[in-house]
Automatic annotation (TrEMBL):
Main enzyme class: transferase
Listed Pfam families: Glyco_transf_5 (PF08323)
Pathway recorded for this protein: Glycan biosynthesis; starch biosynthesis
Protein name: starch synthase
Coiled coil: none
Organism annotation: Cucumis melo (Muskmelon)
């Protein structure tokens, strides 16, 4: 409405605050206003009641992916899951995305290939006005699209002159990736200013939008955003993009001002600039996403060249775990399961196991130990010792243990290791499913005693978290002949509740040790399983609480 001139930015800021402060959720109200014209909605907003107010933050995510419309990695499920959790707690959340237009559309569960699934967007419409953003010394036009995804307001930015930036066969992996995402970052801030938005927090993600930090403080903070602050989430600290510092000028930044050791200059390749480092330096709070590691371990052992920077800014550094969608993954309410169950009544778990065995053509006996394993297209199978995994399976099947392997993406050359494993293991107790089956995946969680995991930190599929909820112990695949421990106790007190729980229950167990405990100490094993089922590790729990705490802290700065 601001872009089309129906309302000025000052009035719309007041209206947005009223909507935020009202007890009625946007999710609840959206269906009623979906078919109304702008003039009708505007008339109702101008009569909006001040009653039943509540305090909440206005948060704008600026990112390159969001489930289920564009899922390329860990950011997608995080943005949707956290945003829904925040809105359930009374905060107003918006998301700004590039409008992906891929040349080819692949039907994959998860892949960096694919286009935007606009069927998941409610009320999608093009705003009948162009707005301009700065890039490479000129102003360039953009189309704006708006809609709602899972109750969250979403804005899509579509470049006109640089139309090829988001019209590719892949989401990333090109020589001009830096220019593409820098354009989007600058265009997002230009849009926020011109639309009159005054968010409390700009929430940015990974290196792709990390430059919003320096852009905000060097250019935009004095353009009506004095009350806004920056939170930077790092989902993959290993994925860093290094660029020639001169390229920073393309979006209006001053390379000479930023290419310094305490700003964007890379610590190892000092002739290059590191956008992720800039995101850390120029943000008010930095959240590292990790379900297993403490703050100290991340800084000193998993910083991938950023140890000095993280240590310098450790006071604003937080660690948060991932979550999962507990509305879709709950054995007490899961309509896919043949019988529901809970920690207080586990009879349905045995029913699910028998159903799974029958479905997979395995011997039907609820006393047999059944193991599920999900391997995604994004898992680097070269990190898994295939021979070790083969030995684990062959040794366990001799004891009657049953295995079900499911691929969660398209079969590609990266799965040759698993195909080789399948050839080497010809056993009546082993089954391989070479495609993702959503219905069957629920049954695997419900019917398994153990879920073998590539890693206990799985930000994309959240397999370990779902396993805990379904009473199926998550056990990490080891690469040391299954003879030792993978996780040693982490005594850093700046760790998450999820990490402490996993590392004190199942995180320290090898697969062999898990089998021994099931057979030799079933009461202790069952106690841990039941305890895990009662814990809330959904997006609404620790992940959301840590972010609300971070938003609160930076708004007081």
């Amino acid at each position: 409405m601001v872009l089309t001139g129906m309302i000025n930015s000052e009035e719309v800021s007041k209206m947005r605050r009223l909507v935020m402060d009202h007890k009625v959720s946007i999710v609840d109200a959206f269906t009623d206003i979906l078919q109304k014209k702008d003039a009708e909605v505007l008339a109702e907003l101008r009569q909006f009641s001040y009653r039943s107010k509540k305090n909440g933050f206005h948060i704008v995510h600026i990112c390159t992916e969001m489930a289920p419309i564009a899922s390329f990695g860990a950011v997608a499920s995080f943005v949707t899951g956290l945003s829904q959790a925040l809105q359930r707690k009374g905060h107003l959340v918006e998301v700004i995305l590039p409008k992906w237009i891929a040349k080819f559309k692949f039907n994959m569960l998860l892949s960096r290939y694919g286009s935007m699934n606009l069927n998941e967007v409610q009320g999608l419409r093009e705003i009948e006005v162009e707005y301009y953003s700065y890039f490479n010394g000129q102003l360039h036009g953009n189309k704006i699209w708006t809609g709602v995804v899972r109750g969250i307001g979403v804005t899509f930015i579509q470049p006109l002159y640089y139309s090829s930036f988001f019209n590719r066969e892949k989401a990333h992996g090109y020589s001009d990736d830096f220019e593409r995402f820098m354009y989007f970052s600058r265009a997002s801030l230009d849009y926020i200013v011109k639309s009159g938005k005054k968010p409390d927090v700009l929430h940015i993600h990974n290196w792709q939008t990390a430059l919003i930090g320096p852009l905000f403080w060097d250019i935009f903070v004095q353009q009506g955003l004095e009350g806004s602050r920056i939170l930077f989430s790092c989902h993959d600290i290993h994925a860093q993009s290094l660029v020639q510092p001169e390229k920073l000028a393309l979006c209006g930044l001053d390379p000479a001002r930023l290419h310094r050791p305490d700003r964007l200059q890379d610590s190892s390749n000092t002739h290059l600039a590191n956008p992720m480092k800039g995101g850390i330096v120029y943000s008010n709070k930095v959240v590292i996403m990790s379900s297993t590691h403490s703050k100290g371990r991340i800084i000193h052992s998993s910083s991938h060249g950023l140890e000095t920077t993280l240590n310098m800014h450790k006071e604003k550094l937080l660690v948060a775990p991932c979550g999962f969608d507990s509305s879709a993954w709950d054995p007490e309410k899961d309509k896919i399961l043949p019988e529901n169950y809970s920690a207080d009544d586990m009879k349905g778990k045995a029913v699910c196991k028998i159903a799974l065995q029958k479905k997979m053509g395995l011997a039907e006996n609820s006393s047999f130990i059944t193991v599920g394993c999900f391997l995604s297209d994004l898992s680097d199978l070269s990190d898994v010792d295939t021979e070790n995994l083969r030995a684990i399976v062959q040794n366990a099947t001799k004891m009657g243990v049953q295995f079900i392997f499911m691929m969660t993406g398209e079969v590609t050359s990266r799965h040759k290791g698993l195909e080789s494993l399948q050839v080497k293991i010809e056993d009546a107790n082993v089954r391989f499913i070479n495609r993702h089956d959503e219905t069957l995946s629920h049954l695997i969680f419900g019917g398994s005693d153990i879920i073998l995991c590539h890693s206990l930190h799985d930000p994309i599929l959240q397999v370990p978290l779902k396993a805990l909820r379904y009473g199926s112990a998550p056990i990490a695949i080891t690469t040391n002949n299954d003879n030792g421990f993978r996780h040693f106790p982490d005594h850093d007190n700046e760790t998450t509740k999820l990490a402490m729980f996993i590392n004190s229950t199942f995180g320290y167990l090898s697969f062999r040790q898990a089998l021994d405990e099931i057979n030799n100490n079933p009461s202790e094993w069952n106690h841990k399983v039941f305890d895990a089922m009662t814990k809330d590790f959904s997006w609404d729990a620790e992940c959301c609480d840590i972010h609300i705490s971070a938003y609160t802290a930076i708004k007081s700065l």
